[in-house]
Design brief:
This is HIT family protein. Pfam families: HIT. It is an enzyme of class 2 (transferase). It comes from Larsenimonas suaedae. There is one protein chain. By secondary structure, the protein is α+β, with helices and mostly antiparallel strands. It has one domain: 2-Layer Sandwich (HIT family, subunit A). The protein is built from three helices and five strands; from the N terminus they run αβββαββα. Strands 1-2-3-5-4 form a five-stranded antiparallel β-sheet. The longest helix is centred in the middle third of the chain and has 22 residues.
């Protein structure tokens, strides 16, 4: 079996980087295309994975470690009020984890961002700037 990225995830996000979770599992990190939020989506490249427990143990542990480290870094850098970490998968069953910085002044506060309102796509300039800022902040 080979890994294929769900078309909805591909359409709604931009590839930031790919990380190794284990010898056998990589993880795409993608920026959600909504100018109102700093929102990353982590998608392990593991065929037919729908649930966290379907990943090998080493990949599960590495994923949660990265989510914690990156979340702490992002929350501090952007001075966010809250960090949301979630794996829903009701509409897109391919296993993925959302890391969303939340601010008391964001449009969905205090409720969830999911289903609140349509995304507001980034302009080319905003996307390029945000991608560069995240790469400098998070990648060696």
């Amino acid at each position: 079996m080979t890994f294929t990225l769900d078309e909805r995830l591909r359409a709604d996000t931009h590839h930031l980087t790919t990380l190794a979770l284990s010898e056998r599992v990589s993880c795409q990190v993608r920026l959600f295309d909504d100018t109102r939020y700093c929102w990353l989506v982590f998608i392990p490249e593991y065929p037919e994975c729908v649930e966290l427990f379907e990943l090998p143990d080493t990949a599960q542990q590495a994923l949660w470690r990265i989510l914690a480290e990156w979340g702490q870094c992002l929350k501090g850098h952007f001075n966010a009020d809250k960090l949301n970490v979630a794996s829903l998968g009701n509409l897109v069953p391919q296993f993925h984890v959302h890391l969303v910085l939340r601010f008391k002044q964001d449009p969905a506060w205090p409720g969830p961002v999911w289903g609140h309102s349509p995304a507001e796509p980034m302009t080319t300039e905003v996307l390029a700037g945000r991608m560069e800022e995240l790469k400098v902040l998070l990648l060696p």
